TrEMBL record:
It is found in: Cytoplasm. The gene is aroA. Residues 7-423 form the Enolpyruvate transferase domain. This is 3-phosphoshikimate 1-carboxyvinyltransferase. GO terms for cellular component: cytoplasm. The lineage of its organism: Bacteria, Bacillati, Bacillota, Bacilli, Bacillales. Monomer. Keywords: Amino-acid biosynthesis, Aromatic amino acid biosynthesis, Cytoplasm, Transferase. It catalyses: 3-phosphoshikimate + phosphoenolpyruvate = 5-O-(1-carboxyvinyl)-3-phosphoshikimate + phosphate. One of its GO terms (biological process) is aromatic amino acid family biosynthetic process. Belongs to the EPSP synthase family. It holds the Pfam family EPSP_synthase. One of its GO terms (molecular function) is 3-phosphoshikimate 1-carboxyvinyltransferase activity. It is an enzyme of class 2 (transferase).
Length: 427
């Protein structure tokens, strides 16, 4: 795909699609709750459609019409043994949270994903789930897909997670819902808390004490109605675009503002971006509001420590932002980037260098020297099949002089099928 380059201005209003993390969880909790769950503004991206497909294979009736979804819950213990392999596609969230639910189900299931999933570590969830009593095997002893699992009666554990990962935390909490007693997880830093909030929305109980989260099971959840706010991780591409493309003003409507996800806003503000947030509402479940961003002068910053889990998926687009900031931006403590859809330290550095960015990889992040004018003579950049790399490169092209061709642009459909239409509507 030939990307738009040297864009003179981006102006307009965008409704980014529903949050991916919340959409997955709404279907999953809806499936194990009693009664009907209705979901509005569900993300009909490939990852969330994989989640729907897996639960349909376990006998759950799910009607999906665009962003409107109705799940007929089976109740805890009501899922059926699937007669076919559960295919999670490109979705790490589907794989890991599903394993947590399957750990408490007294049947056998086989789980597989695409080439990228086959490289992503599953031991981080299969290890604690085996400690709880699930029988799990797979490639390299259950560290990688294909994985087979036979769940059943579990024992509660208190797990000290070595990584701040919402997928690990959620898998254990979901297993804990089916377990007699109190199951707890302690994380080194706080990760996104959508599972905790959503268990409560379904009438369940979760106890939070500092970095420890616990559920006491067994718990029966009740179907509910959910509005999924816009995905701040999708909004991030336009927040950065609005800040770096000349003469721009973009408003993003109904964007999720859960504080465990708003690291990108903190970074933009710290770097001096002109951002305003208005109409903040729904503080009780998942807060959301409208964000306006305008072209800004930017200064370099350091991004590290507890900020990292609050913006982990935004680091590719933050790297681009840093190329347009005066000074040297350092991103560290982010080695989790190596186990995403691609090794995002490598793919970001390789692809941005093709456009003339001054960026180096480090063991746990990257160093970016700004401000650099991006330019290319017939550059061919590649998403490497990673949606976030593809979208970052499309925004990078907007501030590049020259011609830029993107390989594998279709990857964006994993989290944002309408991305290119939305971008072009602003030009
Ligand atoms: O729980 C979730 O919905 C997610 C958690 C994060 O992964 P980790 O749990 O591996 O940090 C994030 O990168 C992913 O896009 C979605
Ligand atoms: C890492 C991501 O998702 P997942 O882990 O669900 O594949 C992402 O969306 O950037």
């Amino acid at each position: 795909m030939q990307l738009r380059t040297n864009v003179s201005s981006l102006q307009g209003i965008i409704h980014v699609p529903g949050d991916k993390s919340i959409s997955h969880r709404a279907v999953m909790l809806g499936a194990i709750a009693h009664g009907t769950t209705t979901i509005e503004n569900f993300l009909p991206g490939e990852d969330c459609l994989s989640t729907i497909d897996c639960f349909r294979k376990m006998g759950v009736v799910i009607k999906q019409d665009g962003s409107h979804v109705v799940v007929e819950g089976k109740g805890q213990g009501g899922l059926q043994e699937p007669s076919d392999i559960l295919h999670v596609g490109n979705s790490g969230t589907t794989a890991r949270l599903l394993l947590g639910i399957l750990a408490g189900c007294p049947f056998h299931a086989c789980l597989i994903g695409d080439e990228s999933i086959a490289k992503r570590p599953m031991g981080r969830v299969t290890k604690p789930l085996k400690m709880m009593g699930a029988r799990i095997d797979g490639r390299e002893h259950g560290n990688y897909t294909p994985i087979s699992i036979r769940g059943g009666e579990l024992q509660p554990i208190h797990y000290e997670s070595p990584v701040a990962s919402a997928q690990v935390k959620s898998a254990i909490l979901l297993a804990g819902l089916a377990t007699d007693g109190t199951t707890a997880v302690t994380e080194p830093n706080r990760s996104r808390d959508h599972t905790e909030r959503m268990i409560r929305l379904f009438g369940g109980n979760v106890a939070v004490d500092g970095l420890t989260v616990a559920v006491t099971g067994p718990q029966q959840l009740a179907g509910t109605s959910i509005y999924v706010p816009g995905d701040i991780s999708s909004a991030a591409f336009f927040l950065v675009a609005g800040a770096v493309v000349p003469n721009s003003e973009i408003t993003l409507k109904n964007v999720g503002l859960n504080p465990t996800r708003t690291g990108i806003i903190d970074v933009l503000q710290k770097m001096g971006a002109d951002i305003t947030i208005a109409n903040v509402r729904n503080e009780q479940t998942e807060p959301f509001g409208d964000i306006t961003v305008r072209t800004s002068r930017l200064a370099a910053t350091e991004i590290s420590g507890e900020l990292i889990p609050r913006l982990i998926d935004e680091i590719p687009i933050i790297a681009l932002l840093a190329t347009q900031a005066e000074g040297t931006t350092v991103i560290k403590d982010a080695s989790e980037l190596k186990v995403k859809e691609t090794n995002r330290i490598d793919t970001v550095v390789t692809e941005l260098r093709k456009l003339g960015a001054e960026i180096e990889a480090t063991e746990d992040g990257m160093i970016i020297h700004g401000k650099s004018a991006l330019k290319a003579e017939k550059a061919v950049v590649d998403s490497h099949g990673d949606h976030r790399i593809g979208m970052m490169l499309a925004i990078a092209a907007c501030i590049t002089k020259g011609a830029v061709h993107l390989k594998r642009p279709e990857a964006v459909a994993v989290s944002y099928p309408a991305f290119f239409d939305h971008l072009h509507s602003l030009i």
